[in-house]
Specification:
Blueprint lengths: L2 H8 L27 H23 L6 H22 L11 H31 L3 H4 L4
Helix pairs in contact: 2-3
Length: 141
Amino acid sequence: MSAQEIDSLAHGRDHGHAHGHHDDHGHDHDGGHAPSTLQGYATGFILSVILTAIPFWLVMGKAFNNSSTTALVILGFAAVQIVVHMVYFLHMNARSEGGWTMLALIFTLVLVVITLSGSLWVMFHMNSNMMPTVHDMRVRP
């Protein structure tokens, strides 16, 4: 028996044809994701509270004079909070499930971006092309 076979048997990952099929199936349990312990969940919760409190303070304290700047900063904090939730609560990373989880996430994000940008583009052009302007509403003698 080779050293690799002994290591495989010791870790319960027997890939022989005559033995059980209790394979790893791409799950990375060697610290590949945030710990699913109380400490990992507490860290995610604290980060989520901080990432909620800062934008709340920015709006209530009127930290920026321009509302567009405030909106962009809040969107940045929202994006970071999405990542925190995915890592600490959903345990997603590029190695889990053989990378299929990350691929599904990327595909979903692409579809969401296409749908939102297409909807905004259509609504903007419908508004500019379909709504009458003051010039068009004048009564002609």
